[in-house]
Amino acid sequence: MEVDYNSMDLPINTIHDQDSDTDVEGAEVKDMRLEADAIVNDVLFAVTNMFVSKNLPCAVDMAYINVEIKEGTRYCLELTDAGLRVVGFAFDQVDPGCNSQYHETVYSLLDSLSPAYREAFGNALLRRLEALNRDAQS
């Protein structure tokens, strides 16, 4: 059986937006540069210094974050879909031999590195709960 068709009648979906937040299968794709900025803004209050590296390559699928914990130790962190992990022990330093474990959240990673982070986070949480309690009593 012959089927005649006009190529103009076929659906055309050849345009792919490179800046799209979805991949080919329609799953959402995270931009790790944006994720890294959000992480820094979220926990900056509980560390001495933290910023997204401007010297190491950042891409849609990977970013590097430099952090100095309250105890004075500096780390270079790698952020990927697998999570966060320590990759170096100085700002902007990636040690290929560093095989640290991935953490799902920055909270888990910092909790494992810094007792002072745990204390700062706990104190911030306590202040927030006290403020909510005062608001509820007003």
Automatic annotation (TrEMBL):
Pfam families: GSKIP_dom. One of its GO terms (biological process) is regulation of canonical Wnt signaling pathway. InterPro entries: GSKIP, GSKIP_dom, GSKIP_dom_sf. One of its GO terms (cellular component) is cytoplasm. Residues 33-132 form the GSKIP domain. GO terms for molecular function: kinase regulator activity; protein kinase A binding. Belongs to the GSKIP family. This is GSKIP domain-containing protein. It comes from Pyxicephalus adspersus.
